[in-house]
Design brief:
about 85% helix, about 70 residues, mainly alpha, elongated
Length: about 70
């Protein structure tokens, strides 16, 4: 476990090395953006896209129904 943690620590040190002179908020924003992008890609390939589309269409139909009546 110690070897794994050392490897992760080295990887993160290398990842944050270009940002060491900048304000920490820029590094945090960049890493947050990349993490969010990765999660969107993972969610896209692990979710049922047809069911999501069907639910979105039903919600849109209900909103149109409320607006018409």
């Amino acid at each position: 476990m110690g070897v794994f943690l050392a490897l992760v620590n080295s990887f993160l040190d290398l990842l944050f090395w270009p940002l060491r002179a900048a304000d920490p908020i820029y590094g945090l924003a960049g890493i947050s953006f990349l993490t969010g992008l990765a999660m969107v890609i993972v969610f896209r390939f692990t979710s049922n896209q047809k069911a999501i589309r069907r639910s979105k269409d039903r919600i849109q139909a209900h909103l149109l129904e409320v607006r018409l009546f």
